[in-house]
Design a protein that fits this description.
Helix content: 25-40%
Number of helices: 6
Structural class: alpha/beta
CATH class: Alpha Beta
CATH topology: Rossmann fold
Oligomer: single chain
Number of domains: 1
Radius of gyration: 29 Å
Distance between the termini: 76 Å
Order of helices and strands: HHEEEEHHEHEEEHE
Length: 209
């Protein structure tokens, strides 16, 4: 028995000796609590969607009443996909214009109306809400004021907007492409109401089930 054990021990290479293995082990590096955090990739499988089933609604959220024509759904196109499709600009504009005409009625033809949208915070080069607002303005033959409000942060909750351009018209259509919390519309309301402007709020997609 002893000779068998001795044979096994002599077959063990020097590099595999326990002392050498322990020497090669490095202690774990302490976690740097102040190191910048890397942003995780956006999981689009959980992204909001819309199947464009018509659902006209008046919703009160964040102290703002707004009108929407579509609802967030479980299935359908993602909001990123919608914003990235140039054909959706005309589709959204042509879908919301009849609702604006119907809700404002004859007052729209009497003049004194314009349209604005929320500040550009993420997509400044090709802003989806801006492109739709431009088409709405053309269809309604009213002015569109771009960059009425500025926002120096990407914060949505309790966002503070700064006035950049004050429209001359007393009646303003405030449009946003999607509304989730309503905080963006609320910030626009706080900004413009102090100038005695009459405000109507519209969106394409009500981004809550």
């Amino acid at each position: 028995m002893g000779s068998c054990v001795d044979g096994l021990l002599t077959d063990v290479p020097e590099s595999a000796q326990l002392s050498d293995l322990l020497d090669d082990l490095e202690p774990p590096k302490p976690k740097d609590l102040f190191a910048p955090k890397q942003r995780q990739a956006w999981d689009k499988s959980n992204e909001a969607r819309c199947d464009f089933s018509y659902r006209l609604r008046i919703t009160r959220r964040s102290d703002v009443n707004f009108i929407s024509i579509w609802q967030k759904t479980v299935y359908g196109r993602t909001l990123t996909d919608i914003k990235g499709d140039p054909a959706m600009v005309e589709f959204c504009a042509s879908s919301i214009v009849p609702v604006i005409r119907e809700t404002i009625g004859a007052h729209l033809d009497k003049g004194g109306w314009c349209i604005v949208t929320s500040p550009k915070r993420r997509h400044k080069a090709r802003n989806f809400a801006t492109l739709i607002s431009e088409r709405i303005a053309e269809s309604l033959a009213i002015p569109f004021y771009e960059d009425v409000a500025l926002c120096h942060t990407r914060q949505r909750v309790n966002a503070a907007f700064e006035l950049n351009v004050l429209p001359d018209e007393p009646n303003i259509i405030v449009f946003d492409d999607f509304v989730t919390t309503g905080q963006t519309l609320a910030a626009m309301k706080r900004l413009l109401e102090k100038y005695d402007k009459n405000l109507m709020f519209y969106t394409c997609i009500n981004n809550k089930l």
